[in-house]
Each structure stands twice: as structure tokens, then as C-alpha cells.
Amino acid sequence: MPTRREFLTTAAAALGAATTPALAWQTKEIVTRLNAPVGLQLWSLRAYLPKDLSGTLANVRRMGFREVEGAGLWGRTAAELRQALDTAGLRCQSAHLGYERLRDDLTGALNEARAVGATWVVCPWIPHENAVTREQILRAADLFTRAARTASQSGLRFAYHCHGYEFVPADEGTLFDTLARNTDQKLVEFQIDVFHAFYGGADPAALIRRHAPRVTSLHLKDLKKGTPVVAGTGTGTPDIDVPVGSGALDMSAVLRAAMKAATRFYYLEDESADPLTHIPRSVAWLESVAL
């Protein structure tokens, strides 16, 4: 299966099953103790969206979601995706767009984000081979500041999504700290993927506290208990992605830190092989946890 970076670079690919399995849940609203919405990162359903966009989005709404985060156009135009979202009763206030797209076609990328209804543009990956270097981080910092300034001029906000490879030693602390220090602190925000931060060797709650109030959204997912953690790990395999609240992360501490940081959005993201089972279990935990 292609990586998220490959998907965003090539726009769309026909992945997985041809149709979305019918779900029995009735339309509901997700109610948690968080002072912000819980949305779904659409990458979670990458096996279904290219083949059954409208049906998959309808099922997302039936799970209780109102908010989603974009991860490409799924073989449609931006206008077609926006229409499908509107029909399903979903809002896409944040959209992931690839590094190369932001570097080479920033105007087009921002126009696409606006067309699907987004007010946040998020870069999910810094291209690199093997270990990321300080030079690559500094080039990314320059790009992110330029992109954030341009986005701000047209009423959009910009964020970078951490992926784990940044949490290796650097002069400033870690390469993530290098990125934070060399970007415009008023314009470049952060989306903390708590799974990847933890798997890459960071303490997600401490990371959120350190960089508040720049942490405006989270990706919520959990790491299978007993999985070795190695600093700088950038990605994980589907078998170590477990429902939120059932894994190795201290998710309650993460959520308390995010609430104190006034995080605006919480996006569930499931990268397991069974998202249609995992997602409702994650929702149920979030609705039940006392913070």
C-alpha cells in the first residue's frame, strides 16, 4: 500500500476494496469532555474512499463525526469532493497537502484547500532518505514560513504534522526543536501525531506543553503495548496501530495537556488493517474517558 507521502504526491490511487461495508450504526453525535471537536482523518479509510466516496463519507457521518481532515482528492476534483462532503453533512476544516506541492505549486495547493472548505493547510512529511538531516529540516523551516505567510495573506492557517523522524538529538534539543526555532512562531503551527511522536522517542504530553499554543490540532492513535520505541522512527506498520486508549500511550495525560494548550481539533487517525472496527472503539473510549 502506498505511503501517505506517495498518495499526496500522485494525487490518488485506487486502493483496497471496491465498496465500503454497510455499517449498522445510526447517525449520532460524538460527545466528549474535550473542549473541541473530534474529527476523522480521511486517510484512515483510504481503502474505501477511492471506490465509494459518497457511501464512505455517509458512513463517517453515521459514526458521529461532523469534522474530517483531508488527505487528497480521492480521484475527484476539489469541487466534487466538497459537494460529497456537503451532501454527507461533513466539514473539512483542515487538509493535508504534500511538501512537494507546497514547494512547487503553493498557489494551487492553497486554492485546493479553500475549495474543499479548509481553513488549515497541513504538511504531513518532510522528504528524506534514511535519517533526516539538519539541512533538510532547515530547508523545510524556510518553506513552511514562506507557505504560512502566503496562506495567512489569504485567510488560511498553516501547520506541520510531526512524524517521529524529527526526535533525534540536535543543537537545539531535537530536530523538532530546530524546526520550531527556525519557523515563524506566530504563523507556523503544529499538528502533533501522538502515535508517531511517542514511537519516535518523544513524550507527547511534554511535547504539547513545550510548544503550546502552537499545537492547534492532534492526531489521535495508539501504539500496541510492548512495541519497542526507537528515537527517530518515522513510520509504523498496521499491526502496531491499536484503538485509542488500549495501547502504550498515556492518552489521558496527552488529552489534558492538549486541553490546557487550547488545542482546536482532535482528529482520530487509524492506520491499522481494520479501521472500521478500530474507529468506533476509539470513539467509545474518548466519550467515556474522564479528564
Keywords:
eight-stranded parallel beta barrel, single chain, 16% strand, 291 residues, alpha/beta, 12 strands, two-stranded antiparallel ribbon, 11 helices
Explain this structure to me?
- By secondary structure, the protein is of the alpha/beta class.
- It contains eleven helices and twelve strands.
- Strand 1, helix 2 and strand 2 form a beta-alpha-beta unit.
- The radius of gyration is 18 Å and the shape is globular.
- The model is unreliable at 7-25 (pLDDT under 50).
Concise structural overview:
By secondary structure, this protein is α/β, with parallel strands linked by helices. The protein is 37% helix and 16% strand.
Secondary structure layout plus pairing:
Elements: H1 4-10, E1 38-41, H2 53-62, E2 67-70, H3 78-88, E3 91-96, H4 99-104, H5 106-115, E4 120-123, H6 134-153, E5 157-161, E6 169-170, E7 173-174, H7 175-181, E8 188-193, H8 194-199, H9 204-211, E9 215-220, E10 222-223, E11 241-242, H10 251-260, E12 265-268, H11 275-288
Parallel strand pairs: 1-2, 1-12, 2-3, 3-4, 4-5, 5-8, 8-9, 9-12
Antiparallel strand pairs: 6-7, 10-11
Multimeric state of these chains?
single chain
Give the rounded overall mean pLDDT: 92
Q: Please compute the radius of gyration using only Cα atoms.
A: 18 Å
Content of β-strand: 15-25%
Number of strands: 12
